[in-house]
Design brief:
The protein contains 1 helix and 10 strands. The protein is mainly β. It is globular, with a radius of gyration of 13 Å.
Length: 118
């Protein structure tokens, strides 16, 4: 699978976005945050992400090194994406694949990532 266009958002649909992402590159991180929320993540350059609605409905949580902006809907509490920087310093968006419309997360083959040791 190559990069495809998706729409997604939170549970109550107050937050909606479009993203071009590659679902062959999904990770399952074992850090305390990702494992508690059951996140399956893929990453896209910020230029391939467009927030369609809900900027005013987002709240932020930061942990550890305070470099990732974990954004969640104030109404339903779902974290459908996060903002941060890639290893090269470029702006990136971490997409919670479980929040993409029409994607069967059980059909994906996520790569384990040891975020607990970071």
């Amino acid at each position: 699978m190559t990069a495809q266009n998706f729409t997604g958002g939170c549970h109550c649909e107050a937050v909606r976005y479009e993203v071009t992402a590659d679902l062959d590159r999904v990770i399952s991180c074992n850090c305390s945050h990702c494992s508690a929320k059951g996140l399956l993540l893929t990453f896209a350059p910020a230029s391939q992400f467009k927030l369609l609605q809900g900027e005013d409905r987002l709240s932020e949580y930061q942990l550890n090194k305070h470099v990732i902006h974990h954004l969640f809907c104030k109404a339903c509490g779902v974290q459908s994406f996060a903002r941060g920087k890639g290893p090269d310093g470029s702006e990136m968006v971490a997409i919670n694949v479980r929040c993409l419309d029409g994607v069967d997360a059980a059909a994906l083959k996520p790569t384990p990532y040891d975020g607990r040791s970071m």
